[in-house]
Amino acid sequence: MTRKGNCVHRARVNKSVRRALQGILLVLTITFASAYDVYSSARQKVDLIESGRLQPGTRVDLSLRELNAMAEHEAPVGVRDPQVAVEAPDVVTGRALVDFGKVRRAQGFQPGWLMAKLLDGERPVSVTARVRSSAGKVTVEVQRAEIAGLEIDGPVLDFLVQNFVTPLYPEAMIGRPIAMGFRIDRLVVAPAGVAVLIGR
Fold it and tell me: What are residue 80's DSSP bridge partners?
């Protein structure tokens, strides 16, 4: 009788565990599907902008969720958990865990022993920048940059831009206006997201 009771108890426990696991899998499936749908929506909008088929005066809105989904799916090697936030009009903050050693190796460079000791390992990185745009050009001005809670500027910031930002985004020029292309006239950067305005 005791053995039978134990078997019944184990069966109930196993059934409860299975139900719990099924519930967790269902939640994960819905979450991943939702995240993919957000990314798919953002990717379609960007592809449409880059197609050059949009009429002058068209406005394409990219929500903060869409921007973060793109950042997550298209982050380069060595960058994990990227997040984008717009805390004030035209002011964007990007955060991520960055392994600078992995980033450099993905760019085709093999750091020496000492440099590897300095670069390897994930560190929280935060960059706040002001984004100004008009007449088809955009200027990004870094206001604040931190690595592991320590603010960086001057030569150290220049080194990071030259060795990590520029190889990843060759056309990016910090503090200087660059052409956006694809007939984009200007960007409206707000806490809800970014609006892309198409010109002639």
Answer: 97
Secondary structure of residue 26 in the 3-state scheme: helix
Helix spans in the chain (H): 2-51, 64-73, 100-106, 113-119, 154-160, 166-168
Residue whose entry in the numeric block shows the structure tokens 């050693």: 101
In the numeric block, which tokens belong to residue 78?
């060595």
Rounded to whole angstroms, how far apart are CA atoms 182 and 50? 6
Residue-wise pLDDT for 5-39, tens only, equals: 555 545 555 556 566 555 555 554 444 445 558 89
Tell me the β-bridge partners of 63.
193
Cα–Cα distance for residue pair 168/120, rounded to 1 Å: 18
pTM metric for this prediction:
0.75
How far apart are the C-alpha atoms of 128 and 145, rounded to whole Å?
Answer: 6
Give the contacts of 168 (CB within 8 A, at least 6 positions apart): 76, 103, 107
Residue of 44, 54, 99, 45 whose CA lies nearest to 77: 99
